[in-house]
Design brief:
The complex is a heterodimer of chains A (252) and B (266). Chain A has 252 residues and is α/β, with parallel strands linked by helices. Chain A contains 9 helices and 10 strands. In chain A, helix 5 crosses helix 6. The longest helix of chain A is centred in the last third of the chain and has 18 residues. Chain A starts with 6 loop residues before the first strand and ends in an 8-residue tail after the last helix. In chain B, helix 2 runs parallel beside helix 6, helix 3 runs antiparallel to helix 4 and helix 6 packs across helix 8. Chain B is built from 9 helices and no strands. Chain B is globular. Chain B is mainly α and 266 residues long. Chain B is 86% helix and 0% strand. Chain B has 2 domains: 44 residues; 218 residues, no CATH class. Classes of the chains: A alpha/beta (252), B mainly alpha (266).
Chain lengths: 252, 266
């Protein structure tokens, strides 16, 4: 874990009107590392990931991916950088007009109807990786349960074998057993594919299981970063209150 | 005291007018950028011809029944009204001329535009708005596919192509509707009616109708895509975007129709 960080944020700022969502975020993620970001709902965790993906234009600061500054890149250059990323969206964000297998291979076909047989095989292989059989290939996303949608979305995110994967609340809305299946999947994807991962979660069990390091975002800044073993004895009153879920404390 | 409060009220009024003017200009600016972006990216690869033809059939083919019905009823009603009004001063012979001019120059393009806007702008805004609030548009971007090229440009281009084709069909059906009433109810001579119709049907009118239709098609898709793309805030936001798409498409169709009519026929 030496050399240039895979992702490096410095002084990242983004405001929506008077609401300063990101107010100077500094964070470095090493290649092959799994970092979990915790923080209250609406604290800007998703906004931070969307800034890195170029989906939201930050107001200021710096975002470096493999040492390359990506703020201000043109459309084509940004598309090249995005090819390094995969993202699991909170609600899955599957394309409901397309069958499962076209969803999973969307990044490879870029939405075209080509290479049907080969794409089905690739879809099946990636679905197997997330524990789904070939019987879901032809289903529409609306025909799947919430947990299955999340797994299909996971298969779609990993199909192009991205170097970096973002998971936005991967276990939210799942029962504890399904949630743990997703945790195992994320852990094995990071290990097997050698990917760098950033996960947003409110689920402390999940954070402890999948993270190498944990960072807490509060009032637009990273107020604590540490190894996952220190999560419950961070010495930081904000982190303590958050991980223990106390209504009383410095966070109101 | 009173002078101060009057001055204050006047300043408040100007500030209010200013805010509205700035908001209107900002909207025009955003729309122009959006449209320019869609056209520029739609004209550069990767292209999605399959999406274009899919939209062409959505916008054109599946709108034909409603457009055909609108045209035949309107043509028929126009013939009846012209006859009734004309009979007061012995001008019933103007029926075929009024029908052909009225349909081709105004009613054909405008009614097709409005009917298709009601059908298509709303559907586009609802679909793209849902994709926006469920993060499907963000997902598409991260999957290396540009929504402007994949979703918006095919809709915009298909709509610009489909509307003139539909207006041609609607014009023919509308004139036929007038013919039916005139010949079978008002006892016009069939051959004579068609002869007058042909005399009054000029190429420039026909071409103007197609130009109008293309402009309307552009606004129909632009409003649907723009309001869908900007939808925010869940189901309520999608509903609002859909409503705004239809209302703004209607207004732009009627306004651009007036402008084109005044320039071309004024």
């Amino acid at each position: 874990m030496t050399g240039v960080p895979k992702i490096e944020l410095a002084g990242l700022r983004k405001a929506f009107g008077p609401n300063r969502v990101l107010d100077g975020v500094d964070l470095a993620v090493e290649a092959g590392e799994s970092l979990t970001i915790i923080g209250q709902s609406g604290s800007g965790k998703s906004v931070m990931l969307k800034c890195i993906l170029g989906l939201i234009r930050p107001d200021g600061g710096s975002i470096r991916v493999d040492g390359e500054e990506i703020i201000g890149l043109g459309e084509r250059e940004m598309a090249r950088v995005r090819a390094k990323f995969g993202m699991l969206f909170q609600g899955g964000a599957l394309f409901d007009s397309l069958p499962v297998w076209r969803n999973v291979t969307f990044a490879l076909t870029q939405g075209r109807n080509r290479d049907g047989a080969r794409m089905r095989a690739i879809a099946q292989e990636n679905l197997e990786r997330v524990g789904l059989g070939p019987e879901v290939l032809n289903l529409r996303p609306s025909e799947l349960s919430g947990g299955m949608q999340k797994r299909v979305a996971l298969a779609r995110a990993i199909a192009p074998r991205p170097e970096i994967i973002f998971f936005d609340e991967p276990t939210t809305g799942l029962d504890p057993i399904r949630a743990d299946v997703i945790n195992d999947l994320i852990t094995s994807l990071v290990t097997d594919l050698g990917a760098t991962a950033i996960t947003i979660t409110h689920d402390m069990a999940s954070a402890r299981k999948i993270a190498h390091r944990v960072a807490m975002l509060y009032q637009g800044r990273i107020i604590w970063v540490g190894p996952r073993d220190r999560l419950y004895d961070s010495g930081n009153p904000y982190v303590d209150q958050f991980v223990q879920g106390n209504a009383e404390g410095p966070i109101r | 005291m009173t002078i101060n409060s009057v001055a204050g009220a006047i300043i408040a009024l100007f500030a209010w007018i200013g805010r509205i003017a700035i908001a209107a200009l900002a909207t025009v600016g955003r729309l122009t950028l959006f449209a320019a972006n869609a056209i520029r990216r739609g004209l550069t690869p990767p292209y999605y011809p399959a999406k274009f033809f899919e939209q062409l059939s959505h916008i054109g083919w599946f709108s034909l029944p409603v457009v055909g019905l609108t045209a035949i009823f309107t043509g028929a009603a126009l013939a009846q009204q012209t006859f009734t009004a004309g009979s007061r001063f012995n001008a019933t012979s103007t029926v075929p001329a009024i029908v052909v001019l009225g349909i081709v120059r105004e009613l054909g393009p405008v009614l097709v535009g409005l009917m298709v806007a009601g059908r298509v702008s709303s559907a586009m805004a609802a679909e793209l708005g849902t994709m926006r609030v469920t993060e499907q548009l963000d997902a598409m971007t991260t999957l290396r596919t540009d929504p402007f090229r994949y979703l918006i440009a095919p809709r915009l281009f298909a709509s610009v192509i489909a509307l003139p084709l539909m207006v041609m069909i609607a014009n023919a059906i509308g004139i036929f509707g007038g013919y039916l009433i005139a010949v079978y109810k008002l006892d016009f001579n069939a051959v004579g009616y068609l002869k007058v119709t042909r005399e009054y049907l000029e190429l420039t009118d026909f071409m103007m109708a197609l130009v109008k239709a293309a402009v309307f098609g552009f606004f129909i898709a632009l409003m649907g895509c723009y309001h869908g793309f900007r939808a925010a805030g869940g189901a309520a936001g999608v509903g609002e975007g859909t409503r705004n798409a239809v209302v703004s498409a209607f207004i732009l169709i009627l306004l651009s129709n007036l402008i084109i009519t005044v320039i071309a026929f004024g």
